[in-house]
């Protein structure tokens, strides 16, 4: 199945001039598809406010938050491929006349330098005359930054989260009062991100199956509602797969419950291997697993099912080979049903496979 990746757009309005200003130098960076989540809706409004306040107190026309740590308290982090490697870093910009923030990674060199001095402001009065940064993307391209000041944000456990930055197209120097206010704002943003990180960890614990480490029934129900809403909004197909281990009770009775638990842990890893980043795997209960495949039609569902069965067949399982029953259900935009009907259809398809005449070939 072909994985389609598209850059995620800000939920705020963007000025076209701001978009053009950041359009250069990003061709090697590919944004992976990002799953919208109400749990993450706090981030961009908060960044917009803090960047706007920082620019106001420092008297600069533009500001930016640079994310340097993968975990800033998001349920669904933004990810990119940069020069062939995964990259969790991001930058959110705010320009004059802009009503929100624009997410676009331009240059991390100054922010990474600033991150090396926690508790201090890194201030470069004129990038064009600084040999370290005169050829940087910030100085040479758009928005042609001359002045830069950044404050590192450090979590309670010592993780460097990123930097809050202000910039100008003209050389300048901050006053002592501006530096003091800038640092205080950075500490407030630091505390807010740290709070969301802690809440996200607690939420993750309640949404994760303790045995396999994948999603549990609660997280499955939540994700299905999200994907169903997206299916209706974007008029895209949605597929669900249900997977069950054949003769699992006999396996437990013969080899013991610890062996059965080990089998489920290994099977969760195998089921996850052929999936895209946008797909979702959960332990539905007992020896049943559920998979949600967004933007996947019946052909794609058959391809994923075939990959899963081949992956299971390739594994050298402890004690004895295992068999699985797999049921699939796909809903297209033209069909009228609800997500409970989709779930029921997938479950029924799996049941029919499991109790058919030849479950080995299901």
UniProtKB/TrEMBL annotation:
Domain of life according to the entry: Bacteria
Gene3D superfamilies membership: 3.30.450.40, 3.30.70.270
Matching CDD domains: GGDEF
A GO-annotated cellular component: plasma membrane
Any one Gene Ontology BP term: cell adhesion involved in single-species biofilm formation
GO molecular-function term, one example from the UniProt record: diguanylate cyclase activity
Domain annotation GGDEF: ranges: 236-362
Catalytic activity: 2 GTP = 3',3'-c-di-GMP + 2 diphosphate
EC number, as in UniProt: 2.7.7.65
Parts forming coiled coils: none
Pfam families found in the cross-reference section: GAF, GGDEF
InterPro entries per the UniProt record, alphabetical: Diguanylate_Cyclase, GAF, GAF-like_dom_sf, GGDEF_dom, Nucleotide_cyclase, Rev_trsase/Diguanyl_cyclase
PANTHER family, A to Z: DIGUANYLATE CYCLASE DGCM-RELATED, REGULATORY COMPONENTS OF SENSORY TRANSDUCTION SYSTEM
Name of this chain's protein: diguanylate cyclase
Annotated source species: Herbaspirillum aquaticum
